[in-house]
Design goal:
globular; six-stranded antiparallel beta sheet; 15 strands; mainly beta; single chain
Length: 206
């Protein structure tokens, strides 16, 4: 039996927060009788200028049905906190993660990406900046480069659009690949202690 859940993501109005373990709940996918080893988040590409909204799919299971078979993706093992290593500007951040609930890309400030005047926690370069970082599995491999772009947050949010692939802000604790990371990718999320052809979770794959 194939299961697909359609979801709507809106990008603004969220902020980065870390909940104490006691306030966290188990992923409900793990409690399903079938297709319970992970999910795939599918979101289309959107232009740098943004979009009013975006529709995506959350597909249950990895390698359990004809519609959730992994192909051409690389799995990055994570630790028990779902973290792996991101190297950016020559510095490695081991407490890094992927999170569709973060509305931007959040990382330690870089000199080539100045902060905004009004929204000081966000980035506001005078023109769109192209950047790259390297993701490495928590076990030390594999590694892969990720290219991304950063636009002017203040200019973008004053447009008619609500969802952007190129907004971000300062996050000192690590690298948070937020919602913009998902645009144009199929992101596989392997749940802890479950197996698939991509390995045993937790892992991220794309």
């Amino acid at each position: 039996m194939k299961r697909k859940i359609y979801v709507l993501f809106l990008c603004l109005g969220l902020s980065v927060a870390v909940l104490a373990t006691a306030q966290q709940v188990q992923n409900p996918v793990a409690l399903l009788p079938l297709d319970n080893n992970g999910v795939i988040v599918q979101l289309p590409s959107i232009p740098l200028s943004g979009s009013p909204s975006v529709n995506g799919s959350l597909i249950l299971g990895i390698g359990t049905q004809s519609n959730n078979q992994p192909s051409g993706v690389t799995a990055f093992p994570a630790n028990q906190s779902a973290e792996f290593t991101v190297t950016f500007n020559g510095t490695s951040y081991r407490s890094s993660f992927i999170d569709s609930g973060s509305n931007g890309l959040f990382f330690p400030s870089a000199s080539q990406v100045p902060n905004c005047h009004t929204f000081s926690d966000w980035f506001c370069p005078s023109s769109t900046v192209s950047l790259s970082a390297t993701n490495t599995g928590a076990s030390g491999s594999p590694s892969g480069s990720v290219s991304f772009q950063m636009g002017n947050f203040e200019s973008l949010i004053n447009s008619i659009n609500n969802v952007f692939p190129d907004i971000g802000g300062t996050f000192s604790s690590g690298f948070d690949w937020g919602l913009p990371f998902f645009f144009g990718r199929n992101v596989f999320v392997g749940l802890e202690g479950t197996g698939s052809s991509l390995g045993t979770g937790p892992y991220w794959a794309y």
